[in-house]
Design goal:
With about 220 residues, this protein is an all-alpha fold. The chain has 10 helices and no strands. Helices cover about 80% and strands about 0% of the residues.
Length: about 220
């Protein structure tokens, strides 16, 4: 959405910056996840994997809420631009209510579909349905978004960051969990990246194609 807005709004110079920041977000998230899950969280990940299906202490619910709340705040800071960039620069109360209502409807639809297509990607990853593992993933994801927010105000794709965290974690787990393989992980990571890349290609085609269609048929 931001890609289309940048080009149709005449800010084509920002397109490269957004794409560069999104790609860098994937690389940083991927590298950070490999390091953290290979060194810092290795024993915890092995313990989670070994005890999955067992009763989990109730304090993990609080930790999950805390890490998800932190991630949610960072995600909103990044992705609110996807909605509000199309609204007036000075928001009236009516436009603010419209924007918030749109977000709530979109989130409700996603919940109705149990996460949609992105959830299918998440559930194919190792132990991601474990609340303990999900808590750590949310925390790392949120921290990466926070770092990029502080480093630059240029919007970026949070999806690429998320895929980077999942990909790096999967590779790290494949190094030391007996029932995972690096080759199978590589196939998953490539498949996920191709799906995200196809979305990027569509957005770029729309970004450059829509102005051309408008000039060709309406100007």
């Amino acid at each position: 959405m931001l890609t289309v807005f940048a080009v149709t709004g005449g800010e084509t110079s920002n397109l490269g910056k957004m794409l560069t920041k999104s790609a860098l977000g994937y690389v940083v998230a991927f590298t950070s996840a490999i390091i953290l899950f290979s060194l810092v969280f290795r024993r915890l990940s092995e313990y989670f994997h070994r005890t999955k299906g067992q009763e989990i202490p109730s304090y993990w619910v609080f930790l999950q809420w805390a890490s998800t709340g932190f991630l949610w705040s960072q995600w909103l800071i990044q992705d609110l631009a996807n909605i509000f960039v199309y609204l007036p620069r000075q928001l009236s109360t009516e436009w603010l209510v419209f924007g918030i209502g749109t977000l709530l409807l979109m989130q409700g639809y996603i919940f109705y579909r149990f996460g949609g297509e992105i959830q299918k990607i998440v559930t194919t990853k190792t132990d991601t349905t474990d609340i303990r593992a999900a808590t750590i993933i949310d925390l790392i994801y949120g921290i990466v978004l926070l770092v990029f927010k502080e480093a630059s105000s240029m919007p970026m794709s949070t999806t690429w960051v998320f895929l980077g965290v999942l990909a790096g974690r999967e590779f790290a787990l494949s190094f030391y969990l007996a029932d995972t393989s690096t080759k199978g992980t590589a196939r998953k990571v490539v498949s996920d990246a191709l799906k995200a890349l196809s979305g990027l290609v569509v957005s770029i085609v729309l970004a450059f194609g829509l102005p051309w269609l408008y000039n060709a048929f309406f100007s």
